[in-house]
Amino acid sequence: MYISEKAPAKINLTLDVLYKRNDGYHELEMVMTTIDLADRIDLHPLPDDVILLESSSGLVPQDERNLAYLAAKMLKEKLGIKKGVSIYISKQIPVAGGLAGGSSDAAATLRGLNKLWGLGLSLKELAKIGAEIGSDVPFCVYSNTAIARGRGEILTPLPPPPPCWIVLAKPVHGVSTADVFRQIRVNEIKLRPSTEKMVEAIKQGDYDAMTKLLVNVIEPITMKMHPEVKKIKEKMIQFGADGVLMSGSGPTVFGLVRNESRVPRIVNSLRGFCQQVFAVRMLGILDQGLTK
Ligand code: C5P
Questions:
Q1: 238, 221, 236: which is closest to 277 by C-alpha?
Q2: Does the domain formed by 165-281 have CATH 3.30.70.890?
């Protein structure tokens, strides 16, 4: 028996940083959703009590620095499991891009091992373990649409956003989340998102309102380090995206597009100066058979 688990990327429709906490983390308020750009995690049982990790991408580490490896190690330690597993990550999501690729790989590993080893844990229990791995892992355990507060681990589920296309473009260089967060000065934030209005737009299925309410307070910081972010945003708007925003700490920029005929034009306009350009559908919720 082996398990194959989908690990979808997330985007931030809003991201607000409320204050810096005493533990060094930032208190956040974000609306996040799931898109149909995904890694695939294959889990095979091994006869020996070891964790092996391989990936289709040379860009991801193969030891504990990989969050999927860490997820398997933590699950084994917490539950006293003496079983081995080989983890293969088929990578699609850009690395260090603000799309929670590493976190989603970890979350999919938790869900997959829960099945492979017949642990019977709920998604809530997996999310609790996930919070120790990284701030975005609990969201990725559910891979739905939600308001995320606290470090990102306090989740309020929302219905899926109105369907649309999402064009994504990642500048060549990735960013370190920690580097970006270090540069945030909360009292210098000029434009903040309205979580309340975004939630209302999603609940009403109001696509136009959703595209107008996209705000990420981290965007100006990453833009200073990577001027390509601004260029990509301008190109996407020029070629007909309805709303554009940088996701998470960046530098990936996404554009929401309702009219399918515009998608190829936007993609082609970006191919010239971005290595990684994708056009995918909004997912909003991952069908994984378990909801609790
Ligand atoms: O939790 P995670 O390991 O993904 O976070 C990576 C880094 O991002 C943290 O070490 C911290 O510097 C920053 N961070 C933060 N506030 C958050 C989440 C992450 O400052 N809520």
A1: 236
A2: yes
| pLDDT mean over 81-86 | 97
Residue 92 CB neighbour total at 10 angstroms: 18
Asked if the model's pLDDT at residue 15 lies above 80, the reply is: yes
Nearest CA to ligand 1 atom 7: 178
Atom of ligand 1 nearest to the CA of 27: 21
Q: How far is CA 73 from the centre of its chain?
A: 22
Paired sense of beta strands 84-90 and 51-55, if any? parallel
Find the DSSP H helices in the chain: 67-79, 101-116, 123-131, 137-142, 177-182, 195-204, 207-212, 219-225, 228-238, 263-271
3-state DSSP assignment of residue 132:
coil
235-259 per-residue burial string, b: 16 or more CB within 10 A, e: under 16: bbeebbbbbbbbbbbbbbbbbbbbe
Instruction: Write out the catalytic residue numbers.
Output: 10, 136
Classify 145 as helix, strand or coil: strand
Fold of 3-159: Ribosomal Protein S5; domain 2 (3.30.230)
Nearest-CA residue for ligand 1 atom 2 is 134
The domain segmentation of the chain, as residue ranges, is: 3-159, 165-281
Q: From atom 13 of ligand 1, which residue's Cα is the shortest distance away?
A: 178
The reply to whether ligand 1 has any atom less than 6 angstroms from the CB of 177 is yes
Tell me what percent of the residues of the chain surpass a pLDDT of 70. Answer: 98
**Strand bridging mode 26-46 / 3-20:** antiparallel
How many angstroms is it from 152 CA to the middle of ligand 1? 9
Q: Which of 173, 171, 177 is nearest to 277 (CA)?
A: 171
